[in-house]
Structures are given as C-alpha cells and as structure tokens.
Design brief:
The chain is of the alpha+beta class and 161 residues long. Helix content is 36%, strand content 25%. Strands 2-1-3-4-7 form a 5-stranded antiparallel beta sheet, with helices on one face. The protein has a two-stranded antiparallel sheet with strand order 5-6.
C-alpha cells in the first residue's frame, strides 16, 4: 500500500478560503461605509445645531437690539422667511452675511414677532428657518398650508425683561 502525502492545498480549498475572505471583506467594507455615513450625518446635525445656537444666543443676549415684525400672522412669517430671501449664509464654522460667503450652501434667517397673547407684554416669538441641501433632507416646513422641503423651522420665546 502506497500512502501519498499531500504537500499543498487543493483547488477547492483555495476557492473556499477565497470565498470566505471575500465575504468577510465585503461585510467589513459595508460596515465601514455605514459608519462613515452615520458619522457625516452626526457631524452635519451638530453643525446645524451650533449655527442655530449661535443665533439663539445672539438674540437672547439682548433682544432689544433686533427689529420686531409686529404682524404676528403666519403669512407675515412665511413672507419674511422665504427660502430665496434668507439673509444669512452659514457653513460648518460660522454665520456670514450672504454677500460675504457666496459659496456657502447653508442659508438661514429669523423673524421676531410679538407673542400672540396680547395680555403678555415684552414677550416675543422668534422663528428661525434654516436650509442646507445636506442637512435638512429629512425636514420640511409647512408655511401657509404649503410644504417647503429641505428646511427646518425652529420657534422659541424670548422676553425683553
């Protein structure tokens, strides 16, 4: 009886090992792409939050310095905050006048209106509208019963006291 010693791997073993390596590599690549996408969303969301926080802090520091629109209707808010007329531009780092940052894709604006209850004096509603193609794809605003895609609108109440 002659016993043959196997000195290498058969072609089937090599193919199976290659298939396993390819499956593991493709699943790792999918995971990395998924993590990268989620990281970008978190960074974008944080950037949007930082810009909103800057506006809020600026207004809250001294609301008397800002112009108040005494027409408290929704029509006035929608007119003042048309996407094409938003006066400020922003990026990941700062807020700019629109003329100072023509390459900035983010736009934002705000309007200050008296609180709807006239019995409460010195209280105002601040409405901030923010747009950016990457950041606001999951958001939309309803203005005058019309849905405006890719915008986010935040309202807050401030007091002059």
């Amino acid at each position: 009886m002659i016993i043959q010693q196997q000195k290498g791997n058969s072609i089937i073993e090599i193919l199976i090992a290659s298939a396993i390596v390819i499956i593991v590599f493709s699943s790792m690549l999918t995971y990395v792409v998924h993590i990268k996408k989620n990281t970008q969303q978190v960074i974008s969301s944080r950037s949007r939050s930082v810009q909103i926080q800057k506006i809020v802090q600026m207004i809250m520091s001294d609301p008397k310095l800002f112009k108040v629109n005494f027409d408290a209707s929704e029509v006035a808010t929608c007119t003042a905050l048309k996407n094409e007329d938003l006066p400020l531009a922003w990026d990941d780092h700062n807020i700019y006048e629109l003329a100072d940052c023509p390459g900035c894709k983010g736009r934002l604006g705000y309007v200050i209106q008296p609180f709807p209850l006239q019995s409460i004096r010195g209280v105002y509603v601040v409405t901030i509208r923010i747009t950016h193609p990457k950041l606001t794809t999951n958001f939309s605003t309803v203005c005058n019963n019309e849905k405006i895609a890719d915008t986010e609108q935040i309202q807050m109440i401030v007091s002059l006291k």
